[in-house]
Fold each of these.
Amino acid sequence: MKPGIIDYIILATYFIYVLAIGWLVKRRVKTGVEFLTSGHSIPVWVTSLAFIATNLGAQEVIGMVASGAKYGMLTCNFYWLGAVPGMIILGVFMMPFYYGSRARSAPEYLKLRFDEKTRGFNAITFAVMTIFSSGISMYALGLLFHVVLGWRLTNSILLSAAIVLIYTYLGGLTSAIYNEVLQFFLIVLGFAPLSVLSVIKAGGWAGVTARTTAWMARQPAFAHNPDVMTHTWKYMGHTSSNMMGVEWFGMLFGLGWVLGCSYWCCNFLVVQRAMAAQSMAASRLTPLIASIPKMVMPVVVIIPGFAAIALHQMNVPGLLVPKGNTYDYNLVLTNLMAQFYPSGLLGVGLTALFASFMSGMAGNVTAFNTVFTYDIYQSYIRKHASDAHYFKVGRITTVVGVLLSIGAAYWAAQSNNIMDFLQLVFGFVNAPLFATFLLGMFWKRTTGHGAFIGLVVGEIVATLTLGLSRAEGTGGWFGVVHVFPSAMAQNFWIAILAFASCFIFTVLVSLVTAPKPVAELENLVYGYTKMPVERDVPWYKRPGPLAVIVGIACILFNLWFW
Amino acid sequence: MDDLRVPIGSFFVILGVMLLIAYFFVTASAPLASPRVNLWCGLAMLVFGAVMLWLARRSKG
């Protein structure tokens, strides 16, 4: 791939715009609260698009195209099962408590609902997770540009980190959110042509399905069900009948219920975007509106990978590069760009890759800022300082967060089992959290001790499950008790076990410890919170009807590609 | 900043113009696609950017 001058001009134009937005937002951000939480000032269409853009990081885009090539339409389960239902649950059931409690962060909700130790535990694990995930995605981007463009790793890492640092330092959360909207449009408009061009080249949708079926018929394990790549649910009956090595139960509960809901309802990275909305109603609409583009996002990020397999079956060279006894699927996206994008559009595609990286990293940096400043610094280091003081701390934290991420990127470059580690960190921090928030919001009897012990047990169980099982070379450091058919199955089952153990221990310990007085549960728990009633607004601006429509549409997508 | 649609709209108008320049003056091609994709994508981005700017203008006036 050889970008021309015009491609570099496009990239430079984007960088100028990103920095300019940061600079323009800076004039509006005058207090620490505005810097760290946006002061509930952002219109709902902006928070909605930022809500999904912050998840559309480089790893998500590269990874989804890779999975599209590896698993075909099965990958859509990550959207129609692993995302949309979680987003509906957040908007309809959970947002009233997040927004109504006036908490500034998800850990702060835990402090208000439970106690200091639960907040502290969650804040620290979350802070560590955000640093590692932004560092690792920085490394992934640098590695990709090194392989396809020959850029030095250090150049890509420092350039992208410096730009994210400048615009988040200038305008804080508002700047990150405004840029995420620009990044969202750039990602969609930059990658959509790839989807259209590759499907047309492969003979339209009929050509893609016929050729991917012919491709699977050549694999001995799937010769009896070669249409496995074109269905989402049909071959979920048994782990051996689909390439993911997952059966319907693991899929439904592991991905849909535990991982999907933990991520979309409890990960402060995304929840922070909804909390920044102008009003309670806007904050509830944020994930619901966001779920509409999310539902059709597979067209942009999964279909190109799927079509790449059809093109490979047509003997188009250079798309699937062999790696060991399989293929390097992470290169499919850039290989497609090299085949389909002439100089000009190539610049847009590369810029979209940078944009996706920045939206993911800025999301991590701004969430880290808020959690560190309010949940760690203000809680344990200096309690009663002025807003101006926390503003300053927030800015310094931005710099420190970016520097730590760069450190994590170089650490990832040194280490040869990053994925193991990332899987552990995500399973560890995310999976049990959904049980804690669910019980906290809907069962008034849940106590602080219960929540804390439940979380600790859930995380120990996650670690033990990974340590005692093995799949595709991951895990099993304590010995191998069980072998999973795939790393994905292992991941889903870690989540299920972590969630279940956290749920059970939270309930058991809550029953034997003293509950919080009812007076302190106001606006935190179902039954003691005045649920918002929307009158005088048209039905399509109310969360209930919108959630029903989005839910039905999502079910129809599942049935369509069953 | 008053309206986010202004920077987004102007960004995509500029991007569209650049792709049209690439189509008319650079005429590079990719192995599997003709240089015409620059023309079509350039026009699409130009239209998207213009609509964004028009929406921003309309809500202001």
Note: Chain A has two domains: 5-22+39-411, 418-531.
Amino acid sequence: MRVGLFVPCYVDQFYPNAAIATLKLLQKLGVDVHYPTNQTCCGQPMANSGYEHLTKNCNSLFIENFAAFDYIVSPSGSCVLHIKDHLHDEKREGDAQGIRKKVYELVEFLTDVLKVEKITAAFPHKVGLHQSCHGQRGLHLSSMTELVDQPFSKPMQLLKQVQGLEIIELTRPDECCGFGGTFCVAEEAVSAKMGKDRVEDHLMNGAEFITAADMSCLMHMEGILKRKKSNVKVLHIAEILNAG
Amino acid sequence: MSRAAILSAILNNQPQTTTLPEDLQFDSPAKSVVTDKFVQMINFIGGRVVIIHKVEDINLYALEHYPPGARLLSPMQALDFYTPFTGEEDPHEFVNAELAVFETHFAVAENGAVWVTEDKMGARVLPFITQHLGMLVREENIVATMHDAYSVIGNADYGFGTFIAGPSKTADIEQSLVLGAHGARSMTIFLLKSEI
Amino acid sequence: MRDRMSTTSGIKHAELSDIFNKDEERVNWHDDTLWWIRAKRDKAAHGISEWELLRETASQIKNNVLSNLHDYLIEFESKAQANGIIVHWAANAEEHNKIVLSLLKGKGINQMVKSKSMLTEECHLNEYLERNGIDVIDSDLGERIVQLAKEPPSHIVLPCIHKKKEEIGQLFHEHLGTAEGVSDPQVLTETARIHLRETFLTRRSALTGVNFAIAETGEFVVCTNEGNADMGAHLADIHIASMGIEKLLPKKKHLSVFLRLLTRSATGQPITTYSSHFKKPRKGQEMHIVLVDNGRSVQLGRESFRNSLKCIRCGACMNTCPVYRRSGGHSYHNAIAGPIGAILAPNLDMKEYADLPFASTLCGSCTNVCPVKIDIHDQLYKWRQVIVKEGHSPAAKTIAMKVMDFTLSSPTRFKLAGKIGRWTLKNAPFTVNNQLNLWFKNREMPTPPKESFSEWFKKNNK
């Protein structure tokens, strides 16, 4: 099983630790991971802004980099969802369809493909889990409070295996953080307010760290935490699963 | 003419036909708990339940709760305040109705609603214009869900029919629930228990 | 009387939301209130084990309606006429308004009482009638309040959810004679009851909306908690019902599914107090129904967006939408706000409503609460593509996106751009950390790492 590591553009440039942790975690679990060095971006920022027609280059570059792998894994629910839903290429449509079937977000790869039952990690802290919308409602990483459904959570399943970790309970377990791509500046007032409210929920319930499967949500909440001069830090779930 | 234009546009634009669900079978509370569920729902929606053993018991209730001058009305012949409606009355005539009591076809346990049609109302406006509302429900006529309800209604013809669930209400002012908006201020269910 | 809609026409959601967010405490109050209603909806939904099956059934019924709308409308018309209901067809808002006016003028009526109808908001009926000498009173308490305030409703089910009780008290003091400073909801509601009772008793004409119309039997259903639709209709000489053509259901039994879903989705109640089935006019009364198109047949032809016509106007999407709760209905400058408004409005006027599909993070909560399973957030994404393609996107944004495409389509350019970004943040933060940078208004920028992942990988994986 050859796995291609797909690192979101902004994670590559601004949050490399999330990608490093992802790589190390997969290697620890015995996965043959490769990192195609010519990757850039999945195209989501443009597509979500209404410019899907400008993502042809990103699409073909993505296919070029990843078509040959058995699985493609990424520490990003929203990027994976975008690829799953929107990857197309006039010249290599077969490859595009193939990729859409074998692209996985990190958490679901661990629970559904590797079927990990024992993570050796230690992180003795109070952690708030932010349910990133695309991962939750798009990739169905966990049950959703709106639906009448059996409760389950793949991220929780993994976090529960981490020694010493205490998951705090939130007042609104799956409300959106307000990042939303270009929304974060196009609708700055609402975006910031949504982020503030999310952060407040975690702080009120005693989180020392906020984690998620999406660095974009965390980047947004981190910006607000730092502006508040809070001691609470954000960490991608890969970093926690790889800790201690 | 607009009718032709609209229909033609629709015919052009509507998609391929899809199947229509016909068989509406869903979980129901069992018959044994249906009465309890109904009573529970009536209390939840702001109504009250008075258990009676014969229809005439309603007369006693009315005597106890309404002063002699109050205008009480009902199309039910068994009651003291039976009103021989002609069906020709000006609806404005009923403006000072204090209590009006009606017979229901059936009641629905899942939401506390009762079904009444025009032929049991005396006048369409009466269940709404009266200050206080009374509804006779026979226990054996309580059904579990709305699916059962429409089964019972079947093809029955009526000029006007309504489900009424509790007293009128509004929460438009800062989500504070207030009972008694434009319809009845209170709703009393006279629950006629079945003979065991 | 000026058009209530035109007060914010031209100004877009982002700017209006910015203004709304100046009062943070009020935003918290608005958000908490609507979240509470969402929570009540959750409780009601979770009380029905077959809830998801009900949604799927409702969705399929509505799919069938849309795909056979032509025949169902003809069937409904024929059955309604046989019942003694007079059926009118209006291609657009203007025609609808003209029909209503002519019905009133024909009977020498110049006063009308109205119960809640979002369709008439869409058609700006009140303003039209007022301009033509008809006095209209909205009888739904929330609608009466916004009418007195000379504002449009901000929510399709809870028209004055944006108003505090003190403000309502003040309005009632000014217009209905309550004492100054009175804000108790019980007292205010009682005042409205007495005031509107007088209205019901003196109006010869009543206009209602239509929640559902049944093709099989030619009857229509009006759902209220207050009883105002019934009070108006049963006392009037002429009852006019305004209905969007998509509001049909095939058979009476299908009402069971929708009456179970509607109010639970809207407010968490098991059913509205009144679900009145109007089939034949009262003896001596005229009953009319106006079937309105106003862009619906066009939307029906839009493959990506036709599902929006399944909407039963419950408002659940608004209650759950984190953006709606923190921006308020008026920020959508449209009769219907929130997620459903954002996918209906661009069909009517793409230029005016180009901003609405972007007033969202695409979180998907709306799609989950929709009782008829409209794929709302997917439609928001698709509208974005259409709006950009039709040229309604600002030039600056298009340029920025093209630059992004240029940068991201080459690994070399991408790595260089990233490096420059990190260098700038590290060495010249003032160029980025200022009020020109919208991100920076309320958030710190990310700390630039010393190397990117790809640089680290190159070093550590020879």
Note: Chain C touches chain A through 73 residues (CB under 8 Å).
Amino acid sequence: MGTEFDLAGETSIVHPIHGDSASTLSIDGHPHRATLVPATTPGEFTLEIDGRVERLHAARHGEFHFIHMRGRTFCVEAIDALKRAQRVAAAVSGEQVLRAPMPGVVIDVAVAEGAEVQTGEVLMTIESMKLQTAIAAPHDARVVEICLAAGARFEQGATLVRLEAMGRSEGEA
Amino acid sequence: MMRRIESRIDIHGADYQRYREKNLERVGEFRHRQEEARFERPQRDFDRLEHHGKTFVRERIERLLDPGTPFLEFSSLAANTEYDGDSKGASVVTGIGIVAGREVIIRADDPSIKGGAWYPLTVKKNVRCLDIAIENRLPVVHMCDSAGGFLPLQSELFADRVSAGRIFRNQAILSKMGVPQLSLVFGQCTAGGAYIPSLSDYAIILRGNGGIFLGGPPLVKAATGEIVDADTLGGADVHTQVSGVADYAANSEEEAILLGREIVSVWQKPEKTPTDLRRPEPPYYDPEELYGIIPDDIKIQFDMREVIARIVDGSLFHEYQPDYGTTLICGYAHIWGHRVGIIGNNGVLFNDSSLKGAHFIQLCNQNRTPIVFLQNITGFMVGQEYEARGICKDGAKFIMAQAGSEVPKFTVMVNGSFGAGNYGMCGRAYDGRFVFSWPNHQIGIMGAEQAANTLADVKVRQRERAGETLTAAEIEGIRGPVLESYERESSAYYATSHLWDDGIIDPVDTRNTLGIALSVARNTPIEDPHYGVMRF
């Protein structure tokens, strides 16, 4: 699987090859010998790759790696292969029904029918077992129908909101 | 490989700002109360210490600890709602600190309050810190300076199973386990208190202020007529040269503390249980954002993943069964490099969420992973449908797996803890290694409003049977006081006052607190998992 690295839109798939040497990497299917040695100053490294020696500075923020090398700065995004696979699989389309997770009462309706909502936007607040729960849009969508008004009681599994999926899937917004 | 939690919090939203203001106010109040309990005493009490040539308990502890290392204090607000607030921190300071590079428990009497006399909650706090020492095989340094049991309340602190006797019993058990103890005798240890240095492997006694005796001079005179001064009866020279009750005499508190540090430095460091320790990294999301996540009203739900993201290394989390039993979040993460299983509430416990919890607890036991419980629970789901589906037996499986766990358990009271949810989620009764609470925490057999309404209903029906009808004002007259006392008794301050936890913490300190807890828990080997009979 390996990790996918994105540098200015160009992607490479990198994974370590175990067995002959821990410092052999497969980059886009080609083997390269590489070692990275930290210098005494934090963030400074010596990289030896296929016999070439480079000095570089690197910093990381989440999956973004900022690398300063040969007078230039590069921003490389490391994309987890599983996450990418799940994004593709999660694409949704068509009508979707949001059902009551438990019996309760509608406290508040936050959007009108026909409204276009974004992932995570609160559509309705329900209360059950002393707890108010927000019913949120699982993805970008248009609200087709608000099935219950504020104050209405419902059983578990009751239809609360009907949505029509719009645009891209969750996570890519 | 774990993946980063994607936060959905809008840090520019109105809710975030309102919650943040509320939680900063709550934390401000907590810090204020803590500062008061730790440092504020009437001037005459400080004068008395100075007159006797004694330093304040906080100074003693600071001198003992390795400079620049953390001190995880337990129950800093113990007894805050009792004894008219007289017994600050229950008159004793306890916690985990680093001395000569070793993790130790420090138990220090506070002679600035009624001569360090032990109130009932002082005893409870002493017993608790020695329980922590036993469970986590932590050596103990005692700083003894107590007048003995607070006599007006002696019936509440002497005879029961976890009363004063338990302190000495725990000392004996620690010794039997091979866990060393050191006593620094800075004041008088009278009656039962004399057993603290006597049951320690090492004891240093101060010339002048230090004294150890079963009966002090007044009691001796009353009992036998013998007239003897305290120093001749049980001073440093008698005990280090003649009786052998103590091992070293010191001429100053400073000398005693430095000698104590030298003694701790010769103790063998415990072997930690092996674990998959990673290089720690801070959470990707700023823990300060926790203030904007916990709502200002306990009824409002929030996503526990947002809390997890601000506690664990790199905000990285592997979520187990993400689409099943979704009101209970289960998964693996690392805290300060230690692998943990996390179980957090995202709503009421249903049949499926209870089964998921039981299953995940078994997995954690199977792969020797300590479990962190993040409580925000109103209880198990009620109603005919859920009873028919066996919510009782599914809840029982969750409790059976949790109570039967062999891996260390840690509980953080993130918000509410109500009803049987407290049991499933490793409440105090389940012998987790530590329980810590946030200042907004509320706890009780049910919510305050529900309790007040239930009690008002009962009263109304009683009166109706007697042929009376109550007016709305009369009903409110019943409901009001119940609500008030219930709210008081369900607050985090009442809970911590009674040692239902090991202390209130600022939410942003949760990660560091758990880091220390996880480290000390590794002193104790983890047994093979086994459980009671589950009802399927």
Note: Chain B has three domains: 1-40+272-446+491-536, 41-265, 448-489.
